[in-house]
Write a structure and sequence with these properties.
The structure is a homodimer. Chain A is α+β, with helices and mostly antiparallel strands. Chain A has three domains: about 1-60 and about 330-355, Malate/L-lactate/L-sulpholactate dehydrogenase, four-helix barrel (Hypothetical Oxidoreductase Yiak, Chain: A, domain 1), CATH 1.10.1530; about 70-175 and about 230-315, Ribosomal Protein S8, Chain: A, domain 1; about 185-220, Hypothetical oxidoreductase yiak, domain 3 (Wheat Germ Agglutinin (Isolectin 2), domain 1, 2-Layer Sandwich). Helix content of chain A is about 40%, strand content about 15%. In chain A, the strands form three sheets. Chain A has a seven-stranded mixed beta sheet. In chain A, strands 11-1-12 form a three-stranded antiparallel beta sheet. Chain A starts with a strand and ends with a strand. Chains A and B meet through β2, β4, β6, β7 and α8 of A and β4, β6, β7, α8 and α9 of B.
Chain lengths: ~350, ~350
């Protein structure tokens, strides 16, 4: 492990994107998205993703300096063509529209095609929450999820995110893949040499596996809920719902037509679909923020099963990680990440990150 | 088991509601909602619920002949006071508004307070899909779900439902509780004298139990995803999201403030909250129905893990059950249900259902 100053890690990510021709504004926004994931303790969606974006720009699969545009709109909806820009540029453009429409009519619903990976979905929902709105963001992704009973993957890890502002400085923050776990969690068990729990992933025979290597090689994740006995068809249904809001509604690539991860950078444009929704709670019953804060505080004080593991409200884990990162001014990365970033710095002739070895 | 003609079961449910003073229109709608659940193979939400509604009317907790009203509205939103009518009356009133607003502005988002149990959520989403829209319905319910790490329940089974029309006569139909399973599934294992799988329910010590009796007595269901290892916090987050859209947004009872099941009929008005959303897919990319049908058909032909268990699209199970019920013109009920319905008929002086004993 090594520690890097937050400002330096963010500078490095932005510099790399600029080095491959991305305009400053787009590079800075994409770097802000990535560093937030690292601060939130979701390293899979942080610096770890940088190289994929760089490869897509270098291969011409992503055009970071294009402009997204509205193809069609009504009072509360917009259909956007991201025009193959970086996912962050497309997402900010679209969520801005959803926010404006929610401020005008109570709801804004924006569907985006022609986009690229847009990082941690919650980052975009948070944009709406920062304006006092309920924000929602969804995106489709490459096929990795096996529908209940299926031997093959047909949907992505398709996240659902909802963020809402509450009174007393509280907020509701939900950002979850609709698979039981992300591939990164399997990778972690593999590194530790430990098996994976039931309900995470399938082997090539379509059956649950607890072998981390088999799971990693097969890349066929189980939906949230695991197998049929524990209602895995619900997680499958949720992933399909996200696809309905994203690729199917926007006319982007959808479901089984989305390029696979292994082709990142050499499979042509990703043409991903996203969906952004903003809803104004002020249009409904007064006291929304108070009721939400009451729930959040109630959940935290529930009697825990294990006295050492307090019940958390959705988002508490992320907020705690971010507060710790802010307090130290640093984020930490695994050795492999540090090495690949150093190699990237050399390749792109960018000033490398300054790493302090973490002795923990 | 016994079989009853669909028309006779529906007539019986409507008659019982009318016998306790419900006007015909409201009684017929509530009966249509219940019979649809029985046809869909979800008996927990069908005739099984009738007695709870009757008890609520008899105790004065529900006022079936009141009128719901709009308290506040904007171009794309409405806040509705159900005024303590039956859940079906409130839901039809609210979804009608959501549909009209979606037809005008692209989206309608309606939040309802002061309501009662509104049956199978998908029934209301289907109303929007029947008009060519994407329909969504959510409701809060009595606390039964234990948040991840909690010994106590704090949220309901809070369902999410999404229904959307596709080309080629297909549709997407998702209607799922955000708990791993419903209480009814535990009851079924109890009757069979079999244990329940891991990941369904907790015992009084807050730990997973496989003892059906302990699970049934504790009434503390695990969220979709099961324990923390298999991401049960995601199901908890989804249940909380539904509460945010329902009780919290509408100012109804919410979360831990919702009356418990055991008080049904003697705990005063339920004051439940619902949320109904309609979105017009025509405001986005042309070809929505074709892409959705393509996915549905793709999912069905995926190679199954067990050659005898074909992969299904969300809603296939319900549609198959409904087609079988339509073909035979009957629905079947367990013996206990038949007996309690006969007792109810006698109590309310209503013509009983005519039951054919099912020899299966």
């Amino acid at each position: 492990m090594g520690r890097v100053k937050i400002t330096d890690a963010q500078r490095f990510m932005s510099d790399c994107l600029k080095a491959v021709g991305t305009a400053s504004k787009a590079a800075d926004l994409q770097a802000a998205l990535l560093i937030q994931a690292d601060k939130f303790g979701h390293p899979s969606h942080g610096l770890n993703r940088l190289e994929m974006y760089i490869n897509d720009i270098l291969s011409g699969a992503c055009k970071p300096n294009n402009q997204p545009k509205i193809l069609k709109e009504s009072q509360s909806t917009a259909w956007v063509d991201a025009n193959n820009v970086l996912g962050a540029t497309a997402s900010q453009f679209a969520m801005d529209i959803a926010i404006k429409k929610a401020q005008e009519t109570g709801v804004g619903w924006v569907s985006v095609k022609g986009s690229n990976h847009n990082g941690m979905a919650g980052f975009w929902s948070q944009m709406a929450a920062d304006k006092g709105l309920i924000g929602m963001a969804f995106t489709n992704t490459s096929p990795l999820l096996a529908p209940a009973r299926s031997k093959q993957a047909a949907l992505g890890t398709n996240p659902v995110s909802v963020v809402a502002p509450a009174s007393k400085g509280e907020s509701f923050y939900l950002d979850m893949a609709t698979t039981a776990v992300a591939v990164g969690k399997i990778e972690m068990q593999l590194r530790k040499g430990e098996p994976i729990p039931h309900g995470w992933a399938q082997g090539p025979d379509g059956k649950e596996t607890t072998d981390a290597q088999v799971a990693f090689d097969t890349k066929c994740l189980m939906p949230l809920g695991g197998n049929e006995t524990t209602s895995g068809y619900k997680g499958y249904g949720l992933a399909a719902m996200v696809e309905l809001f994203c690729g199917i509604l926007s006319g982007a690539n959808y479901g089984h037509h989305v390029r696979s991860w292994s082709h990142a950078g050499d499979g042509g444009p990703a043409n991903l679909g996203h969906c952004f929704v903003a809803v104004d709670p002020e249009r409904f019953a007064p006291g929304f923020g108070d009721r939400l804060a009451d729930c959040i505080q109630h959940w935290r004080q529930l009697e825990p099963t294990d006295p050492n593991l307090a019940v958390m409200a959705p988002g508490d884990k992320e907020k705690k990680a971010a507060a710790e990162a802010e307090a130290s001014g640093t984020v930490s990365y695994v050795q492999q990440q540090i090495e690949s970033s150093a190699a990237l710095a050399e390749k792109l002739k960018v000033k490398p990150m300054q790493v302090e070895v973490d002795l923990q």
